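Re: weekly structure request thread

Next one in the queue (444 aa):
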Amino acid sequence: MDVPMTVTRFAPSPTGYLHVGNLRTAVLNWLLARKNGGTFILRIDDTDPERSREEYADQIRRDLEWLGLTWDREERQSSRLERYHAAADRLREAGRLYECFETPTELDLKRKKQLAAGRPPVYDRSALQLSDASKATLRADRGPGHWRFLLDRVEVRFRDLIRGDQRIDAASLSDPVLIRADGQFLYTLASVVDDSDMGVTHVVRGADHVTNSGTQTQIFQALDAEPPLMAHNSLLTDADGGALSKRLGTLALKDLRDQGIEPMALVAYMARLGSSLPVEVITDPTVLIDTFEIGQFGLAPTKFDPADLAQHSAKTLRSLSYEAVKSRLSDAGVPSDMAPALWEAVGPNLDRFDEIAEWWALCRHGTDPVVDPEDAAYVKEAIGMLPDRPWDTDTWGAWTAALKEATGRKGRGLFQPLRKALTGRAHGPDMALLLPLLQRAGDG
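Done, posted below.
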């Protein structure tokens, strides 16, 4: 028996910027496809013409490219409306799609009455009792109705690749609206049609979609299509365990990029967060792919802490080889003959890559020395004993050894005043490596 190729998809709506919640879905679907030598589809879910913006679609592509999450093909729902119309017609013919005319206010009143009576707030299917004449009158009075899918009131069962056996009681659910009164197809139908037409074999998404998966399973079946395998990962929370959704506006990928987060660090962080594998520095995507298993993820809500991400990003940056950052150093204006030494000296101390510009400026132009009053005489004596150029990696050791013998200073009292005088900072790179790069140190 032939096993179908693994096909996954990432389906963002271009109604805003990608955030870390979106990204987790993208990373897991991308890894699943790459692990199995399959296809990863970028599907732009742009059926909402009022809210969809091309600028957001462009930013989605830029974000994914920045992260290295390459896709094998792109699809757009706005170009597939005929397929949704055909599926809707088929469901109508099968008696599984029916027109309803209640206003939002009327539906809200029904729900309140049901709750007051101790009943679940499930749509009562009163529209099924409308005669053709009544429907015509309502259309004339209110305009076209919205269309609901008629659920079979049975238990829907499926095996979740993360959460195990799932049972959804469709009798406890309202028949979902698939088409709005203005004719817009909603995600619940469009996604089923797309997944079926595109041969999607696996869908990884958040745990808030578990019930929706039960509903969509029935729509797949009504269209004589095989539902894909489902995996519902735990939802992200903030560091205090609160809903991260309230903060997503501050966690857009473009903002994280502006904050200097390393792209590979972000991908590795999201790939391991909430799994049984440790979040660790990984700079090679193939390592993530080779170690990925969808069943490694847990059920408990997963905490996302921007401070932890920033720390992980800094560790990742510091671990990068010169070859890995060579082109970035060139873009930052560091000459090729100086770049290897600068990276060796400064790289292990950076929190974000753009700090390299500050250190290169320091090397070229020097800085105003910081000299504490009690160290003024010592620093003046030290500068007088600074060996002539050219300096090499042995110069710092020879210089400080001579100063120790001449002044009796040692430890922090010996080294820190020199660092502050030469760099204007109390902390920083290994001075033995940095000193040969300080072109104006000791001038004046």
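The chain has 18 helices and twelve strands. The chain has a mean pLDDT of 94.
Next request, please.
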